[in-house]
């Protein structure tokens, strides 16, 4: 296992990059502790796979360093980094049994037969596949094939990091929750450094202790799932994480406060001085309907089972509220109240209010 440090990292696929837009990865500085569970989360094209390939040694960064336990491995090839990877499509040998698939990485490194057998059975027990050790891999279901692929990554005890690149994309939705739970359980048992790359917020938030949210080659926030949800540092995080995403209302900032359509909106704290387009950000979970607040008209109501999502329009802006219990009818006049400690101002996308009141 290893502590992983990315220092002043940038990468461009152009031979002579000259401007920020030429870089697939903007400057990144990260430190991942030994034994932690981490996720790289963002939409397609945000730089997740580029960063993963740099960590694994498949790409040499244009600038910066990669360190494993303070040792510079930037120029080291993949086979010198002791990394295990689990890909989107299971990498297993169909003609081999489950046992032989799990044993292959160890046999390939000359591990003695007794140790191979003990390790294979240990991993099989963790994965709940002991009963199928003698089964040919070709006959396995897709989720069990991916389990074996995960097992091949975990069977070695000398790896510095196990990296998962969109491992559940091709798995049926009703089976994903099983594999997500199993992966979390495996991490808690083996305590290896694990990095999980995905565009799916549910996968990232349920697996990782720390999530790195990326947009356009840039890290916009690093935090726990609770931190990302409750205090987004950027409007992209508020939009990308949560369903529905964070509401944004254009506002005027003066005297340290925010005003929408002339009405003062209570905030978590004072707005920091600065220039740029200002928006009030508040999640639907922290919007309520009542007798006071911003006047609005209900545009639509969606019943999603456990609660309803009320979409109301105020000042020409759509604002969503998550409501439990009875809801107003379409066209009804309502008032929208925002929970002050969860309401903040963003300037040019970045958080601009002080924490606390």
From TrEMBL:
Pfam families, per database record: ABC_tran, OB_MalK
Q: Where is the ABC transporter domain?
A: 4-241
GO MF, one term, reads: ABC-type ferric iron transporter activity
Cellular compartments per GO CC: ATP-binding cassette (ABC) transporter complex, substrate-binding subunit-containing
Superkingdom, natural source: Bacteria
- Entry keyword set: ATP-binding, Cell membrane, Membrane, Nucleotide-binding, Transport
Q: SUPFAM superfamilies per the record? A: MOP-like (SSF50331), P-loop containing nucleoside triphosphate hydrolases (SSF52540)
* Protein's UniProt keywords contain Disulfide bond: no
Would the keyword ATP-binding be found if you checked this record's keyword annotation? yes
Listed PROSITE patterns: ABC_TRANSPORTER_2
Task: Tell me the InterPro entries matching this sequence.
Answer: AAA+_ATPase, ABC_transporter-like_ATP-bd, ABC_transpr_FbpC, ABC_transpr_MalK/UgpC-like, Mo/tungstate-bd_C_term_dom, NA-bd_OB-fold, OB_MalK-like, P-loop_NTPase
Query: Coiled coil located at which positions?
Result: none
Q: Which PANTHER family does the UniProt record give?
A: ABC TRANSPORTER ATP-BINDING PROTEIN (PTHR43875:SF14), MALTODEXTRIN IMPORT ATP-BINDING PROTEIN MSMX (PTHR43875)
The similarity comment for this entry is: Belongs to the ABC transporter superfamily.
| Name of the molecule in the record | ATP-binding cassette domain-containing protein
Species annotation: Algicella marina
């Amino acid at each position: 296992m290893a502590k992983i440090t990315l220092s002043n990292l940038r990468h461009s696929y152009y031979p002579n990059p000259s401007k920020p837009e030429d870089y697939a990865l903007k400057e990144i500085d990260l430190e991942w502790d030994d034994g932690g569970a981490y996720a790289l989360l963002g939409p397609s094209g945000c730089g997740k796979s580029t960063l993963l390939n740099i960590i694994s040694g498949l790409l040499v960064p244009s600038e910066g360093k990669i360190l494993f336990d303070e040792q510079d491995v930037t120029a080291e090839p993949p086979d010198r980094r002791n990394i295990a990877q689990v890909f989107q499509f299971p990498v297993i040998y169909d003609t081999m049994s489950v046992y032989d698939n799990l044993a292959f990485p160890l046999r390939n490194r000359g591990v003695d037969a007794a140790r191979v057998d003990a390790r294979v059975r240990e991993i099989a027990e963790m994965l709940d596949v002991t009963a199928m050790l003698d089964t040919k891999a070709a006959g396995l279901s897709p989720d069990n094939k991916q389990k074996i692929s995960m097992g091949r990554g975990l069977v070695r005890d000398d790896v510095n990091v196990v990296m998962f690149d969109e491992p559940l994309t091709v798995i049926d939705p009703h089976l994903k929750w099983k594999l997500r739970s199993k992966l979390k359980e495996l991490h808690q048992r083996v305590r290896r450094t694990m990095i999980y790359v995905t565009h799916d917020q549910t996968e990232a938030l349920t697996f990782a202790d720390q999530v790195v949210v990326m947009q356009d080659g840039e890290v916009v926030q690093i935090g726990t799932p609770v931190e990302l949800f409750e205090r987004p540092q950027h409007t992209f995080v508020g939009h990308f994480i949560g369903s529905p995403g964070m509401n944004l209302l254009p506002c005027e900032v003066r005297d340290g406060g925010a005003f929408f359509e002339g009405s003062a909106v209570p905030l978590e704290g004072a707005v920091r001085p600065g220039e740029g387009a200002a928006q009030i950000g508040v999640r639907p979970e922290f919007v309520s309907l009542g007798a006071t607040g911003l006047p609005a008209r209900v545009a639509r109501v969606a019943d999603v089972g456990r609660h309803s999502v009320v979409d109301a329009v105020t000042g020409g802006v759509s604002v969503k509220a998550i409501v439990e219990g009875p809801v107003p009818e379409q066209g009804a006049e309502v008032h929208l109240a925002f929970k002050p400690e969860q309401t903040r101002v963003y300037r040019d996308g970045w958080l601009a209010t002080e924490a606390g009141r």
